[in-house]
């Protein structure tokens, strides 16, 4: 059943990011207002859907250093403080997205050393439940 729910969520996330790029260019303050609302959902960890959506949007902004830095800070903090939340969100990504995430938000981490992030994620028991994510952190 999750497969049928996931596709609309991912499509919705992608359409949000396309609109957000336009919003960033046209209404900077409104963009950051929406970004902060998304950040609050991310750190609340109430739904893996919110985590997945935040990550997908973060991946779509990799060309924007200001937004990427803000996204990296939140993702890295989540990896350290609430790794189970991050792992659940990552479990909904496809392999291409997972590799991109690993490259930009783990290997090129800004705020924490990559080995500290990986160690935090590996310590959490959730990783074993998601083989697609577990492969990234071997």
List the SSEs and their pairings:
Elements: H1 2-26, H2 28-44, H3 48-60, H4 65-81, H5 83-90, H6 95-107, H7 114-123, H8 131-134
Radius of gyration: 14 Å
Number of helices: 8
Q: Residue-averaged pLDDT, rounded?
A: 87
Note poorly predicted spans: 1-16
Question: What form results from the Cα inertia axes?
Answer: globular
H/E topology pattern: HHHHHHHH
Helix content: over 70%
Structure notes:
With 138 residues, the protein is mostly helical. It has helices at 2-26, 28-44, 48-60, 65-81, 83-90, 95-107, 114-123, 131-134. 78% of the residues lie in helices and 0% in strands. The protein is globular and about 45 Å long. The protein starts with a helix and ends with a helix.
Distinctive features:
138 residues, mainly alpha, 8 helices, globular, disordered N terminus
What does this entry show, briefly?
The chain is built from eight helices and no strands. With 138 residues, the chain is an all-alpha fold.
